[in-house]
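[agent] plan:
  1. take the single chain provided in the ticket
  2. run structure prediction with default settings
  3. attach structure tokens to the ticket
  4. add a short note for the reviewer (M.T.)
[agent] executing step 1
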Amino acid sequence: RQDRLWAASLNGVCRRTDQDNFVRVPFVRETGNCNNLAQDSRGRIFVCNSGGVMVYDAARERFEPAIDADLTRGSFMRLVIDRSDCLWVTTDKGLYGFDGSFRQMAFEALPFYSSDSNIHYLDAGGRLWLCLRSGMACYNTRTRRLEPLPDVLQANADIAKSRPLCIHPYDAVSILISTGAGKMYLYNIRRNTLTAPDRPDFPVKADKFWPTCLFRDSRNNIWMGSTDEGYIINYRDHKLFNNNSHLHDYIGQQPVLSLATDRQRHLWVLAKHSGLVHYDIQSKKAAPVALPELRAAGPYFLFVDRQGGLWVTTGKGVLQCKV
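[agent] step 2 finished; step 3 output follows
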């Protein structure tokens, strides 16, 4: 909320400064690792590790103990904070709930597993979608009770019987589920429908990549990371291009180097042979952009800024295009 960048690692927590560097933020009790960071509605920064949950003290510039894992007799794994600023912690004993003053208010015995990848998801309705050793669970944080898993999820063996790796929102009504069976699924919560990865309308391209964590950036690109295979990116603009037959026919089989969209719903395409192409999504009309100096510079990447300016990275530097 204060435009600060925090980084969690196996060796602790760092915070980016105005001097464009990182400083380490100490823990009071231990150096320890960091499982994840979370922030509540008041702007408080929390860190969860195996020893408990700590909260950042801005005056002392350190993390102070908030919830001790010894009190629950279990090792802490992940922390999720709901809209009421209640803290939900997964442990090797089960799911614990604490209020904003760190008093325990709920517990549910569930078979969680210790991993860097068991990423859970709290939806807008207060339902916490959980990754267990075998299958998923759905816990309602408002009623503080487990809810039956939707029948369409129970009927799918990859979801009901294999170990889920991570759960992440795709849009306002759907979640992506990455399973230990090596497949991803899209579940629409509102319609109670499940889309398999081999369906033509499946929105994410993962192939044989096994995502263990997902992230959507400010441009709606989906980043998928794994523990041993690096990461891949599903670009929103690439999906827009591939799903548009008119533009695809215009470009043909030539390589597409880069894509970008602006606020006027225009798509800019940098093709290897045709150069820069402008496509109006509304009228479905494509036209080449005559910029001889651009072709000579060896362009390879497009970017549209917040003001709608088109920038091109080339072999001779970065150019701003007046089109």
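[agent] step 4 note for reviewer: The CA atoms of residues 114 and 270 lie 45 Å apart.
[agent] ticket updated
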